[in-house]
Structure formats: C-alpha cells, structure tokens
Records
---
Amino acid sequence: MEAPEHHPAVARIEAAVARIEKAAASRAFVADSLARRHATLRARMEEAVAALDELIAREGQG
C-alpha cells in the first residue's frame, strides 16, 4: 500500500482544496470591488439629491 502522502487521492484532494481557495479569494476580491463601487455610487447619489434639494429650496424662495 502507498504512503498516505503519495496516494493519488491525497493529490486530488490537495488540488481540489487549492482550486477552492483560489475561487474563494477571487470571490472575496469581486465582493470587495463591488462594495467599493456601491459606496462610490451611493456617495454620488447623495450629492445629487443634496443638489436637487438645494435647487428646489431656491426655487421655492423665488
């Protein structure tokens, strides 16, 4: 019988774990990127709404 560290099943399991780790890292990167984009969009929308509120307030005074 082969030593456990040389068994083909161990090699397949190690390769599978490496693929899972790579996929998890990729997902974490994508999620972080999406969160940054969302924060940027949210800030821009807040600025736009504030500008509209200001414009509406000025129109109401005139």
Note: The first helix runs from residue 8 to 61.
---
Amino acid sequence: MSLLAAGWREEAGVTAIEYGLLAALIAVAIVGAVSATGTSLGAVYTRWTDAVITAISTVL
C-alpha cells in the first residue's frame, strides 16, 4: 500500500496519468469527428463523381 501512496505523491506519476487522460480524450474526439463526417464526405464524393460523369458524357 505504501508503494501506491508514494506513486500518488510523485508528480511524475500524476503527470503520466494526466497525459494518458489527455491522449484518451483526443482519441475519442478524433473517432467522433471521423464518424460524424464519414457519411457526409461519402455523399460529397458521390455528387462530385456524378457531376464529372455527366460533364464528360455531354462533351462526348
């Protein structure tokens, strides 16, 4: 138990925990952003592809 208590008193241990929590928060934000924009980007790509195909078809 004294080893655990010593770990909480050391600033290096606390700093490592803070960095770990910060990294986890950033990872959750990235996953959320990618999930939210994934379908939206797919729709934009589909519209752009359809517009290019239509433009090429009218020229030929």
Note: DSSP finds two helices and no strands in the chain.
